[in-house]
Give the backbone structure.
Amino acid sequence: MGKSIVDVAVLTYKPDEKFIKLMDSLRLQDVKPGRIIIVNTEEKYLERLIFGTDFIKKNPSAEIHNISGKEFDHAGTRNKAARYSDAEFLIFMTQDAVPADTHLISNLLKPMEDVSVAVSYGRQLPGKDAGIIERYNRDFNYPDKDRLKTASDIPELGIKTIFCSDVCACYRRSFFDEKGGFSEPAIFNEDMVFAYGAIKAGMGIYYSSGAKVVHSHEYTVKQQFKRNFDLGVSQAVHSEVFGNMKSEGEGKKLVKGCIKKLLSDHSAHLIPGFIVHCAARFLGYKLGRNYEHLSRRMIMMCTNNVGYWKD
């Protein structure tokens, strides 16, 4: 297969019907990817989903590369996917990010006409089953207005300057290779660490609100705690990135805004549960930022990514 303009890399682990919908949607895009590179963790789970179906026949541009759970790393696995592609642009997606329309790829590529843009990332919309709190979270982080972010925006936006999500993001391959891909290993935030490098190199990060995927989660308190523990660890490990870009301010804005939203929507009864979730997130984050002072046993209890801590 010859070199293509754009390839799509999808990371999967225990995929479900959302992944099938994602693949169906990619076939309908107004700009077709040359390759769809699926890097799947633990072969049995994907095989269980597609066994006895016409998945392979329906997706001739897809290629499946299986890895073990021990091999998975948020940065390393994406770097592995990138090595299977020689396209000018590479879009990374997660298995549960379903394109909202047929213009996802074209809307991610359009900002790339500006050669100073290193990464463009899409808007994440709440699913039909998302509650009011998760809907607010999506709107808070993914508004309906485009924005180009450069180093000059740091005084105004702070950590939001480097906010970027590999749930759905397009990378300029020449710059990606120049920087050596994602910094690995990574427990979390491989996208924001890369975005920081791009900003410091004088490149831009573009938020494309027209590039829409349906992607939301209703996490439990325990899941929120573990995710934010790993987030805190990633920030501690990359102090060169996050040392002067604290995220607590954005967290406070989200909490205050969400409580205001719940009150205005006559949903005050949800506030106590929301506060418990926020407390779990804050505690997990703080413990993660101070992971070096924790025992290995405690870390294993807190982390969502046990493989990262392998010797």
